[in-house]
Queue: 3 jobs
Job 1
Amino acid sequence: MTKERRIPSSRLGRFSQLGRLAGGMVGGMVTEGARQLARGNRPAIGDMLLTPANARRLADRLSEMRGAAMKMGQLLSMDSGQILPPQLSEILMRLREDAHRMPLGQVAQVLDDSLGKQWKEAFERFDFTPIAAASIGQVHRATLKDGREVAIKLQYPGIERSIDSDIRNVGMLLKLSGILPDGIDLDPLLEEARQQLHHEADYEHEAKLLRRFHTLLEQDQRYIVPGVIDELSSRRVLTMDFLHGKPIETIENLESARRNHAARHLTELAFREVFDWGLVQTDPNFANYLYEHENGRIQLLDFGAAREHDQQQRADMRMLLNACMHNRDELILDAAARVGYLGNDDPPGYAGSVLLLLRTATQPLRATGPFRFGSSELAREMGDQVRQMRLESRYSRMPPMHILFLHRKLGGLYLLLSRLRATVDIAELARPYLDTPESPASGTAA
């Protein structure tokens, strides 16, 4: 964990943090400009602004503020990392796991406000040092009076009511600063961050999603989902069973059979989420998966970013899956239009770019036998194609929100399978969702 810092909870306090950030970055720009001029150089404005020191200022201030400010940095790093200046992308990537934590007094105040001052009576032990910290809240470990170990997610004070203003202020700062390259349409990312934050800030809603996943998987011994402790949960506190698994990355040096076994289960779960349940956990963070080395079970965490897909959306996505499997241009383009990738006002050549991206993303589906993710450049190829679509073609149709979240799900899965150097027969796992040869890509089944 990093150093302790009180989270600003008032709108004025959070706005003043951004003001300090802007002033510090301008001061850094002036200093860098003077240094370059003294050396006889004529630096561009962007070069003076985007110094390593200013990038660190941006990351540190967003980390202190948490909430919408930090989430915006995460989204920029994760979703636009292929087109951000390398030094900014590298610094922002720290926001995925590097954050300040609340001081003890602020932790106690959150518990008092959410569970009442008698909350201490429920615990035999409560560890005030968090075991994890993120953009919305931090997680503590504790033991109940009956001996059960639990994980308690506490929401940072003032986060929920500051979401909209934080998004506006951070967006304005990034747009006016010139720190982003020309061609990036920031508005869709701002709106995505706003909607996702409101969704994730309601812990009662996350508890409902957690119970749904628990019910869906309780008969499947390959997966473990923590149960919710209702009497110690509220809108801003979520108490769950503590899971003792190890980070999923710890299996990357195990024998190939165990790595491939886990990778197959992760991939099958993704298919079931999208096509069987219409309920998808879309956060690609590796920390959301733990592994039980004793029996090979996968433990699943953090369902705040889970998204629902209605029957028509699932049918359209199944149609696209079938079209990509058959690898026929007219079927892929028709399905892509149904899903929302294409429209009547698209410029010439844009459909070809979408076609290439979809074919690249579904290469494992058409592989002859198991696909070797460890030796594949699939993630890099997809990133290169997205960059070309967004910048070189000077046009980017933003797919519907549920598709953007599926992009994140698929990208995160590919990165994890690559990290595990897994070999997985994707076509075999997709078979239950593929149409018969007599009726290719009919898309009639939900």
Note: The longest strand covers residues 137-144.
Job 2
Amino acid sequence: MPSGVRSKSESNIVKQKMVKSKFIPALAVLLGTIIGAGFLGIPYVISKSGFLIGVVYLLLIAGFIMLTKLYLGEVALRTKETCQLTGYADRYLGKSGKFVMFFAMIFGIYSALVAYLIGEGRSLSYVVFGNFGNALVISLLFWATLTILTYIGLKALKKYEKISMFVVLGLVLLIFVFFIGRVNLENLSYINSETFAPFGVILFSFLAFSALPEVKRILSGQEKLMIRVIVTGILLAFFIYLLFTFVVVGVFGNGVQEIATLSLGRFFALLGVMTMFTAYFALSIAIRDMFRFDFKLGRFKGWLLSSLVPLILFLVVYFFKVVSFVQILSIAGIVSGGLTGISVLLMNLRAKKLGNRKPEYTVGINWLVIIVLSALFIAAVVLEILR
């Protein structure tokens, strides 16, 4: 073949290499949704049980949530249509499955958004003014800003999440470097009586099931990256949670505040601001798209429902002091995580038979796996009731 002339196959290889990988943007959206208010509550609940017990919870929950997310990723890849979780449930489990998933999504996401409004107001008030006196006003300003960004949509999400992911990773490493010399090993070795305290909050902190349909949309044309995104996202979240909790509990022991970054000083409270910003953004788009695609309400009505309902719930919680920051996270994790997790397992079983697209990966499943993992989710509910 003459020099300077490429074969068709060589040209295709060159074109493929020139295609920009969507791995980082997709990972940023997943990680940005996972790491939110729950991340900030983990040191507090682990301080109530003891660090060693908390590490066991982190390992177990990260493991079975990763497996459940891989099952959901396969469901998404077996489906040609653009859906949110309720759309997948409707297709593979019928109307009753769609209703269960709808309840799980709105309960989990709206609870999370309320927690983020509470946490962001307190964190920003502390960072800017050194106290919590302006928390309500800042929460409302935060809500207004995110409402505008949610209307702009996925393009704004992809741009912001990518930057935010690296900022969050950098801040966690900075916290480790700055505080590691102050860690007291006695704070990491005690065991308290509140053995079940971490379960709900840690479960909530790994959920983010609603981000996977957005990840699929971002990976359009590069769906083979889905499995790498899921595994990398969970592993990164696990190590960030472990490192953060090790330092915060190691330094402050039982003195950790509910929003852990508030224990670290005004500069490091910015980590909480950043993580809640990204998570609120991603979850708002997820619930907007659920109403838009799965319930055919259109973009504008979906946006209104994703914005106004959290504001109303936040004002009720704020003025009537119904639940605390950590209580919201725990209840949301147990109820939403349990219902969503069990539904995902059943959807995967059905999607293997009824899917209309060949997936880029498959994960084996049978009734034994479904029963064992469902038992874990049910156990979470029981533990929360007993606590």
Note: Confidence is low (pLDDT under 50) at residues 13-18.
Job 3
Amino acid sequence: MAANYRAACRARTKAEFIAKVGIVLEEADEAVLWLELLTESGIISADKTESLLAEARELTAIFTASRRTARERA
């Protein structure tokens, strides 16, 4: 996620930025998925994933808003 965000920040055009932020958003959502699966399967306790899951959801929301704003301004 971090490497893709860095690539988005170095985008040459707005269209490229929007596309790269979309990749970052996919990665953030994937992190949420894996944390949920680990918790639901009992591999890791909810206590251990709670803060990570909250942060991953926050990042997903941030990148969703960022992409929406970039699209509106394009």
Note: The chain has a mean pLDDT of 96.
